[in-house]
Amino acid sequence: MNAGKSKPYTYKSKAYKRNDTTTIEVDELEFSRLVLQGKNIRFEQLSSENQNLKFSVLEEKLIQKIGIDRLDKNILKTLNLFSDSDGFNHAAELLSDSNDFPGIDIAKFGESISVIQKRATFEHESILKELSEAVNVYKDFYQYEEINGIERKKIERIPENAFRETLANALIHRTWDVNAQIRILMFDDRIEITSPGGLSSGISEEEYLKGNVSILRNPIIGNVFYRLHIVEILGTGIPRINEAYRNSAKKPRFEIFENSIKVTLPVTDVMDLTKDEKTVLAVLSKNIPRQISGISASVPFGKSKLTELLKSLESKNYITIQGNGRGTKYCKN
After folding, report:
1. What's the maximum distance between 2 C-alpha atoms anywhere in the chain?
2. Is the alpha carbon torsion for 226, 134, 70, 44 positive or negative?
3. Nearest-angstrom CA–CA distance, 333 and 319
């Protein structure tokens, strides 16, 4: 049975929702979301409790990127941030100079998680400013200049385009009705970015990973980011992140959970493979999954060692493991 249109569904003063083939009771937060969904209203569209908003950061960006003279109510209406009937909405508050929403929490670790080299939290300010501040922290640890004679060359250990795109997409697609920060964990060999909220309703994991379909959880914010050229084309985030790693042996990893999405961006200048791992990797082909029986015929290892080597390569983001049991296949990223 498919889900109906009149949400939420109530019975004996309790609310329910469809979950695959079953019906489950929902909590208060989920109930409020279903009420909005039933009315075809998004959280970002709701009227802000604070109607005394200032937009110096947004105005500066709009002047720089699209050449307006100043930000006025007509432009705010065009951006769907203000209406005569409801005033400023949540999207406007998120883009304003000051707000009450959670932001971005960053931790940079040293040789272990017990060594914290930097800790920073950017919150209660324009999400445009939070994005810029987070990018500056990224630059401190993953970019440097290499001098060769009179020439200076910028080296990116993690592609800046991939980091910007990942964080911009986290801001566009996260759920804003939960009091949770976007979490950025920085390590010597990777960055992990986790955003609150799983996939938007109506999109599958496969569609999300391939970038075939884009359903924006916050289309008003997405439209502003597009107009400011923070994102190039709405809905192409995953392909653009992957494109930034096109010439790298190590690839990004995307993990989807019920209430969050985590993207892992590996550094591109570390080849941390053993001789045996390199042997196995050389046998695998990109986008052509192979079972372990087909791999073992081409390597000088027994099945047990080969299995451990494949698990190690998967943990280092060099390969993807598909399926389980006898149908398990391995594919080079």
Report:
1. 78
2. positive
3. 5
Please tell us whether the domain made up of 104-266 is placed in CATH 3.30.470.20: no
Angle 205-208-213 from CA coordinates, rounded to 5° = 125
pLDDT for 116-167, tens place per residue? 999 999 999 999 999 999 999 999 999 988 777 777 888 899 999 999 999 9
Q: What is the pLDDT of residues 299-330, one digit of tens each?
A: 898 889 998 999 888 887 778 888 888 888 88
* Torsional sign, CA 213, 218, 219, 224: negative
pTM of model > 0.70:
yes
Question: What is the sign, positive or negative, of the torsion defined by CA atoms of 136, 137, 142, 144?
Answer: positive
Instruction: Give the count of beta carbons closer than 10 Å to the beta carbon of residue 122.
Output: 21
Q: Fold identical between 104-266 and 275-332?
A: no
DSSP track, 203-263: --HHHHHHTS----SSHHHHHHHHHTTSSSSTT-HHHHHHHHTTT-SS--EEEE-SSEEEE
Q: Which two tokens stand for residue 33?
A: 């979301």
For domain 275-332, the CATH architecture is Orthogonal Bundle (1.10)
DSSP-derived letter for residue 199 is P
